[in-house]
Each structure stands twice: as structure tokens, then as C-alpha cells.
Amino acid sequence: RERVVERQVARRLADDEARHRAGGLGAAGQHDDEIRAQRAELIERMQSLVGAEIAPEQLAIHIRKLQEEWRTLHRGAGEDDSEEEKRFKTLANKAYEPCKVHFAAKAAQRAENRAHREALLTRLAEYTTTLTGDSPNWRRVIQTLVEARREWRQYAPVDQDIAEALQARFK
Question: Which pLDDT score, from 0 to 100, does residue 136 have?
């Protein structure tokens, strides 16, 4: 079912892009009736995304494309129909809700992974302080490093803005 919906949405977007290239959307000099009809179609298409069973990443892309089309069409219209605009934005927000939940969960997972990696770095720093003397137990050191690398990979991904700094500390 999800694949069928994705194909339908993708087909609609491809048809719209072809129409846009042919001058169907946003072209200057269009009649007000045509613009209203196109706005109504965009609203209907956004409505079809509300509750659609599509992967959140794909859903976000579809919503963004419709918003871009709306802005393009709105620029060519010259008039501001705030009721249509409000309805479109409300539908876009409703359609985006599953994406918001999904992306928040991914952000929480990245934050949790970061905390685990920082805890691992702290444990490794404490472990290095125990390595005193001229002849540490090298088998244990190697085993600790292998386990640390395995654990490090387990706690991925992390936010890109901190990933390099954590990686540098790990090395």
C-alpha cells in the first residue's frame, strides 16, 4: 500500500514538473480562474499527503515540493487569498506531523549516541591513567581498544557538528 501511494505521489509530482516546464505553473499573464484552480489543486494534493503512509523522509520531500510550487504560483498571481494560504499552510503542518515526530526521534537518538560516546571517551581516559609502569598488560590493552572501537561504532550516528571533534578525541 505504501509503495502504491509513493508511486501515485511521485507520478503527480512528475506530471506537475512537466507542466511547470511547459509553462503551466506560475507563468505570467495567467487568468485568475486558472490560478485559483491551480491553488485548489495544490491544496487538494497537500490534503492527500495528510495521513499518507509514506516514509517520513519522502513525505518531507513531497511537502517541500508542494510548498515550492505554491510559492511559485503565488508569485505569479499578484493577489493574496489569505484563506487559501491559511488552509494550505494548515494542511502542510498536518501532513508534516509524522515527519516532525520521526526527525525528533532521530535527533534524540543522535543525542543519546553522543552521550554514550562521551562516556566511552571518559572511561578510556580513566583507563589510560591506570597504565603505569614500563610493561603494561598489552593483551588487555589491545582487547580494551578492540572493544572500545566496537562500542564506538555501535553508538552512531551523532550530530555532524560534533562528530569530527568526538572522532578526533577517540583517535
Answer: 80
Provide the b/e sequence for 38-51 (b: ≥16 CB within 10 Å). bbeebbebbebbee
| Closest by CA position to 160, among listed 119, 114, 120, 128 | 114
C-alpha cell recorded at residue 27:
507563468
What single DSSP character describes residue 22?
A: T
Q: What is the dihedral of CA 25, 31, 36, 39, to 10 degrees?
A: 10
167 has a pLDDT exceeding 70: yes
Q: What is the pLDDT of residue 62?
A: 95
Residues 6+ apart with CB under 8 A from 73: 25, 26, 35, 38, 39, 42
Cβ count within 10 A of residue 84: 17
What's the CA angle centered on 113, arms 117 and 100, to 5 degrees?
Answer: 155
Distances (CA, A) of 135 to 125, 128, 138, 144, 146: 19, 13, 8, 16, 19
What confidence score (pLDDT) does residue 18 get?
62
